[in-house]
Amino acid sequence: MPAAIAVALVVGAIVVVVVLRERHHRRRREELQARLSDLEGILVRLSVDVRNSGAHAVVETGEISSVISEEFAPRGPLSTAISILRGDAGPSLPGPDRVDLRATLFIYEELEQPLTPADLAGGLNISLRSLQRGLSTSLGCTPRELILAIKMREAKRLLIDDECRVQEAARAVGFDDPFHFSRRFKTYYEISPSDMQARRNRSVA
Predict the structure, then answer these.
(1) Domain 2-204 superfamily per CATH
(2) How far apart are CA 175 and CA 167, in angstroms?
């Protein structure tokens, strides 16, 4: 009997640890998503400032059309904002002290590509250590967490707002294997892409 009790206590402790860990990860994901919403708002406002300062004319005349990829299309006003900021926005672009904004912008630019923390650091012309410190201070996350958060965030938009097929959403955020994408998506949101779409369709029916 004592042995059975000991086993039950150990199993109970493991379950508690797992539950607490899942809650911790869920809270971190939610906090990071909230901060990403704030960053996207800042990027949109920056693009408005660029337009008001005269960069809008450059965009209209097509002088930076070679810089803007037609394949790159994040949803909503963020699409226009990033397209503008990818051009010659001058001092309106996020400065070197805003690693969070610069990293967010770069990840969206490279959304269709597999991206590692080293790739992100190289794209920003900073060391991986500087990237890690900057993101830890501003967003409380690692470079890998930020990359995944943005990819999953955009995939959710594609699935829900654009009603893309799972394969299309996977390719759009840099996953060649839709099954691998589905597993990562389910781990992140605790629901599969197809189930999320089905739930959305039922709610609007």
Answers:
(1) Homeodomain-like (1.10.10.60)
(2) 9
What global pTM score does this model have? 0.72
Write out the chain's pLDDT in tens, 205 residues.
Answer: 577 666 656 656 565 655 566 676 778 888 888 888 887 777 777 777 666 665 443 333 333 233 333 333 444 445 556 655 555 444 445 566 788 888 988 898 888 999 999 999 999 999 999 999 999 998 899 999 999 999 999 999 888 887 889 999 999 999 999 999 999 999 999 899 999 888 877 776 5
Instruction: Give the dihedral sign, CA 123/125/129/134.
Output: negative
Give one DSSP letter per residue of 124-172, joined into a string. HTS-HHHHHHHHHHHTSS-HHHHHHHHHHHHHHHHHHTS---HHHHHHH
How far is residue 47's CA from residue 100's CA, in Å, rounded to a whole number? 16
Separation between Cα atoms, residue 197 and residue 182, nearest integer Å:
12
Helix spans in 51-98 (H) = 56-61, 77-85
User: Per-domain residue ranges for the chain?
Assistant: 2-204
